Design the sequence.
């Protein structure tokens, strides 16, 4: 079964600093998704990455995908308090019996402090 | 609001009771998914439908769980004889299978507490 590992699981950072969250997965896939979840809320889609070398940016967040290394990164630039949330990466497959489902990592709980 | 909706948002029940949750997907979406999330974990896949056909069920979905999407629109997830281990957030998502995207949009979830 496809495994998705995120690290770190907990991240506490000061406003204005930069940091990267890593997402590794165990089996070939060409669909990688990043979601944000606020406490007690549902998941909000942030990025969809569909090909090797894909890079997407939205505000202070930038996501990239290296399918050969089975690695995606979520880079945070000049963090602000509003970015405090839990970030999940999820991997999808297009072939075989597991078509359609997403495999999620455990999430990275980000806290940004002044 | 044209997003995914779920009802109820919260459900408290006693062990052994049956519960049913409803999910209304985004109207033009043909795929509907159910996931379960426990505290500190990422969502775990339960089952999904394409139109009215249930295409995959996870091994997590024991015989006490059943899901339907009778007309290819809304879906229900029923848990029979609930156990305390069923306490979790049940998330529904929908997507439109078109091109290479298949981005899944999530509803607000139903939080189940089994006493």
Sequence:
């Amino acid at each position: 079964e496809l495994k998705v590992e995120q690290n770190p699981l907990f991240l506490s950072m000061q406003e204005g600093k930069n940091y990267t969250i890593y997402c590794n997965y165990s089996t070939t896939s060409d669909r990688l998704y990043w979601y944000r979840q606020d406490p007690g809320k549902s998941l909000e889609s942030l990025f969809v990455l569909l090909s090797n070398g894909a890079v997407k940016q939205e505000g202070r967040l930038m996501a990239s995908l290296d399918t050969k290394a089975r690695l995606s990164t979520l880079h945070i630039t000049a963090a602000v308090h509003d970015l405090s949330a839990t970030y999940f990466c999820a991997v999808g497959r297009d072939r075989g019996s597991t078509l359609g489902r997403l495999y999620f990592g455990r999430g990275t709980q980000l806290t940004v402090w002044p | 609001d044209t997003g995914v909706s779920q009802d109820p948002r919260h459900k408290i029940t006693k062990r052994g009771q049956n519960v049913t949750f409803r999910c209304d997907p985004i109207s033009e979406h043909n795929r509907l998914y159910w996931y379960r999330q426990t505290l500190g974990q990422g969502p775990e896949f339960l089952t999904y439908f394409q139109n009215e056909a249930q295409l995959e069920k996870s091994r997590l979905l024991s015989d006490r769980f059943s899901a339907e999407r009778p007309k290819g629109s809304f879906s229900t997830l029923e848990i029979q004889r609930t156990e305390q281990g069923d306490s979790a957030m049940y998330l529904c998502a929908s997507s439109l299978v078109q091109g290479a995207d298949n981005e899944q949009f999530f509803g607000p979830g139903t939080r189940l507490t089994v006493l």
